[in-house]
Amino acid sequence: MTPAARTQAAIELLDRIIAAAHQGGAAADTLIARWFVERRYAGSKDRRAIRTLVYDAIRLCGEPPANGRAAVLALVREKPELAATFDGSHYGPARIAHDERAASAGVAPGWLVAALAASGLDAIERAGLLGRAPLDIRVNRLKASRAEIDVVGAEPIATVPDGLRLPPDTNVEQLPEYQAGKIEVQDAGSQLVTLAAGAAPGIHVIDLCAGAGGKTLALAAAMANQGSILACDVDRSRLSRLRPRAERAGVTIIETRLLDPQSEAEQLAEHRERADVVLVDAPCSGTGTWRRNPEARWRLTPERLARFAAAQRHVLDVAVPLVRPGGSLVYVVCSLLDAEGRDQVAAFHDRHATWESSALALPAGTPHGSGMRLTPASDATDGFFVAKMIRPC
User: Which member of 232, 284, 334, 393 is catalytic?
Assistant: First the structure.
């Protein structure tokens, strides 16, 4: 493909991504993968170049652009050499008109920038949300130690005992260590917040929003595969991915349970006051994961944020009766907005006044409200808020 054809391809892909953001459609990665399936003539260099253009444009534009062309024109301001690819050729984009408007650059839509600033994130922290995410793995201590993993370019992550950072282009799923269940892809921040549970062999854990089970498997490893974990979720598709992952990892202590939304308490009645730890990795806006999904900031609205906050309140209240006296409830969101973190925990204490917050001593992060916060700029991880609450005896 010519440079002009690559630019036109990026514009067409951005048109699809912008439309999907407005309509709640597929994620950018999915749309890009589909586009390349439809155009098998694009070689590996073409794919890499087009993907880079698309994501550079997404990261640059704070407000959702009017269209893909406006997004790439914004990128031309940063990379003037791109202007030459608007050459009007058969497969390239039309020439740039002298009065043509480009999309505006920024970190996020205005209301979100204000919300992040009000949550204590300065300009440097906000800009850090849009950097390129590293590729982190967790060594499965049930099958290997970190010292035993010999992957080219792997560097130990100082803040997590089982973490390694790999070169970004590593095809992890093709590694023998992955196929043998010795490693799992997991961001260092996700590994860190899982440490807050204080999991130990022999305890009973309920992972109330387990999803595909990344944190569930980390908990099982910390428990030396001794004790029990009940992994729950309302999403059948995501939860179904946990069982094969557990088998590959050699984990046998996990039971999965699909829950019906709004009927969770009844379905978990036999577990009342039994759990030593309940992990609530709550559904959230994902503002801490924009490095991986930068177009997600175009999808978020104040109304959607309010729905996330309501869901978080609900699942926290579902968790309360499951915790045994003296047990703990660990609340995690991959969001840096106080509405989903600090303020959510403060509201929990208003509703459950006898519960106490437990001070966390994580190897990274900054105290924030009754919990701790991890950010890309300060901690080189995805963004997280984590808090731990103790039920009175």
Answer: 334
